[in-house]
Design goal:
This protein is an all-alpha fold and 63 residues long. The protein is elongated and about 55 Å long.
Length: 63
Amino acid sequence: MNKDMKYEEALRRLEEIVDRMENDELDVDTLGSQLKEAQQLIKLCRDRLTKTDEEIKKLLEQD
């Protein structure tokens, strides 16, 4: 997974993985790696949202 990945791109990839899991499209061999990737994508998205939230708060405090 690329840490420079944009939030929207990470979210789209996460949705793809979830859809495949819900539709039983993943075999046992790939399920573990897809779950690990999903966890990394969730962390990336959470970190980006937190960072953006902090930046917005700082901007609003300046006014």
